[in-house]
Design a protein that fits this description.
Rossmann fold, alpha/beta, DUF2867, 2 domains, membrane
């Protein structure tokens, strides 16, 4: 089959594409930015790529000869106040572009919406589902609750909480019940539902075999990790306080923390159906899903992460528009040093941040991360998805990767920390010299005061980092 995939660089779609390719389907992958095509599918002969922004569909051209399509676009991590209108508009534009094609089935991954008091995000998911319905094609909707897998928001947040807090005083929503589902099973449902006419124009809840509270999920997670944890729940934490608690303890943004708290207050129990028998799936239990997620993490084989979605950061447009350092109205700190071994230096650059640290005065980097978190920024807790690999769009502590090319010997980062201005950090090797350039474009007088206040630290922090990148 020839299949259209939206949200190609997203957490679900990136993994689903690999599974569909294993089944020998031909894929037409929609990306907003052609510079962000995932490396693992870029050179596959069964893949083609088209530039589409479903919020600006005027210039988009969808091939007419597609047999099916996946709608896998969500705005959970965006801080936009009008995300419901944006999601509805995006779904409507997708529908309008697909209707003239030969598409027979659209598959949509939504959230379980069986509770009468839905969160804003679950209401939006239901609105998207209703928007996607059409007489021109059949809509198949899979509704999932908590998804457990390496790199998923729920997995990473639970890991942050469990591994950092031996004793927890937690909000009352930890007693809310849900049915977690492994990412592997989600992908099997999505791939298995393709072309099955008995699923046309139907919505199906997909869920794991256990009903667990969030507290039980934390404790079972701790058991898998061999950790002893103690949890006390309090009825007094308001949603806002709960959001701050989640924000400061985990690597999530405050916007996502608030959205998660809003969703976690709602019980997510799936309605029974014959979907498991129709597709031939026996979903795995929660502990098995957690164990498999850690196997992927330990093998450095995490394909996608929620943190790498551009919507989780400050960029809302194409990263390729920002791959050159600005020249005007900026302060610049440029340092260079002869390279002894280019391969060694490139490997060190590509491994910077996360657990590897910044090679010089890591304590100061951590203090800067704590300060950023205190003022509502992302802090250092996002880390990085892979310890050795980087590509455009990846989150890297409180930076976003704008450009990464070992062939061109260049890595460009953009700061997503709270700043009175904008900041870039570039590493590139030119004619045997490593050039390390920090650029800051101030905003008003506070931006200028900020630059001069941190300037004294550059001498030893940036020099130390530069030396560590070239010395074996």
């Amino acid at each position: 089959m020839r299949i259209l995939i939206s949200g190609t660089t997203g957490y679900i779609a990136r993994r689903l594409a690999l599974q569909l390719l294993e089944d020998k389907h031909e894929l037409v992958c929609c990306v907003r930015d052609l510079s962000r095509i995932p490396d693992e599918i870029e050179d596959n002969p069964l893949c083609s790529f088209i530039k589409v922004d479903f919020l600006k569909p005027e210039s988009a051209e969808i091939p007419k000869d597609i047999d099916a399509a996946y709608y896998l676009i969500h705005s959970m991590s965006t801080g936009s106040e009008d995300f419901e209108d944006l999601e509805r508009q995006c779904a409507q534009n997708f529908k309008n572009l697909v209707k003239p094609t030969e598409c027979k089935q659209v598959i949509y991954l939504s959230g379980i919406v069986n509770d009468a008091s839905l969160s804003k995000h679950l209401k939006s998911r239901l609105q998207v589902e209703n928007t996607l319905k059409s007489v021109r094609y059949a809509l198949t909707t899979f509704r999932a609750g908590i998804i457990v897998g390496s790199g998923s928001a729920s997995f990473e947040i639970i890991r942050d909480i469990v591994e950092k807090l031996p004793f927890m005083i937690t909000p009352k929503w930890l007693n809310t019940k849900t049915q977690p589902l492994a990412i592997r099973d989600v992908l099997n449902f999505l791939a298995g539902g393709l072309g099955k006419e008995e699923l046309y124009n139907g919505a199906f809840d997909i869920y794991g075999p256990e009903i667990l509270t969030y507290k039980e999920m934390l404790l079972q997670f701790a058991e898998v990790r061999g950790l002893k944890r103690y949890i006390v729940t309090l009825p007094v934490l308001t949603p806002k306080l709960s959001s701050y608690w989640l924000y400061f303890v985990t690597s999530t943004s405050f916007q996502l923390a608030a959205a998660l708290v809003d969703s976690m207050k709602v019980e997510v129990i799936g309605k029974p159906s014959k979907i498991n028998e129709i597709i031939g799936i026996k979903p795995m239990d929660y502990k098995t899903a957690v164990d498999l997620a850690f196997q992927k993490t330990e093998q450095n084989a995490v394909i996608s992460s929620w943190k790498d979605a551009v919507s989780s950061g400050r960029f809302k447009d194409q990263l390729s528009k920002h791959i050159e350092l600005p020249q005007f109205g900026c302060f610049t700190d440029e340092r260079q040093k002869p390279v002894i071994d280019e391969n060694f230096t490139l490997d060190k650059i590509w491994a910077i941040g996360g657990k590897n640290g910044w090679y010089s005065f890591n304590g100061l980097w951590k203090i800067r991360g704590y300060m950023d978190k205190l003022f509502g920024g992302v802090g250092l807790r996002r880390g990085r998805t892979s310890n050795t690999y980087l590509e455009a769009g990846d989150a890297l502590d409180f930076w976003r990767v704008l450009y990464a090319s070992k062939e061109e010997k260049r890595l460009l980062l953009f700061a997503e920390m709270r700043l009175p201005g904008e900041a870039w950090l570039e590493f590139k090797i030119v004619k045997g010299q490593l050039h390390q350039t920090a650029v800051f474009r101030p905003k008003g007088i506070w931006g200028r005061l900020y630059w001069y206040s941190v300037l004294p630290f550059h001498a030893f922090v940036f020099n130390g980092m530069l030396n560590a990148l070239v010395k074996k």
